[in-house]
Specification:
By secondary structure, the protein is mainly alpha-helical. It has one domain (about 1-70, about 80-160): Ferritin. It has helices at about 1-10, 15-40, 45-50, 55-60, 85-110, 110-140, 155. It starts with a helix and ends in a 10-residue tail after the last helix.
């Protein structure tokens, strides 16, 4: 992923796939916990009135990752091309999409027990966006400006890799 390439290119980034992935999974866990807390004691009447019945039929009140429109999560949500520029722009876009989703949730939810953790997650997305932006600038600074987008720097001019580092 881009994070590994960044450490190879600059040597200054302390972003690893494991640390970033762990934090992102923790975000999912926090949102899933909020959803569970909001749905675990619903009555059948509340389930029917809220439009939750179709979900309930398939999953009871268990947590099943899906978009608000009902589209289930799948691995196609992850994108990686092996090109630091492409992957960093993808990372930046993912952070902004998460931030805007949290903004939308905050427009709908006024309960502080829901809104406060969502505000925390939103703040983390902003920090991630800033760090990926810093990383993108570092990668761009190390490229030849005359053929900036003409090649994949990790494939066409790969950094040497010491197998003992992996």
């Amino acid at each position: 992923m881009a994070q590994k390439m960044l450490s190879d290119i600059s040597g200054e980034w302390n972003i690893s796939d494991a640390s970033l992935g762990t934090e992102e999974l923790a975000h999912l866990e926090m949102v899933a916990t909020i959803v569970h807390q909001l749905t675990c004691n619903l009555s059948m009447e509340e389930i029917e009135k809220s439009g939750f019945a179709n979900y309930y039929v398939d999953h009871t009140t268990g947590i099943w990752p899906q978009a608000a429109g009902g589209i289930p999560f799948n691995a196609c949500e992850f994108q990686s091309k092996g090109d630091p520029l492409t992957d960093l722009f993808e990372d930046l876009a993912a952070e902004q999409k998460a931030r805007s989703t949290y903004d939308n949730i905050l427009r709908l939810v006024k309960d502080p027990e829901v809104a406060d953790p969502i505000r925390f997650l939103r703040a983390r997305e902003i920090v991630h966006f800033q760090r990926f932006g810093d990383a993108l600038r570092s990668v761009q600074d190390s490229l030849d400006s005359r053929n900036y987008y003409a090649f994949n720097p990790s494939f066409d001019c790969p950094a040497s890799c010491n197998p003992s580092d992996t």
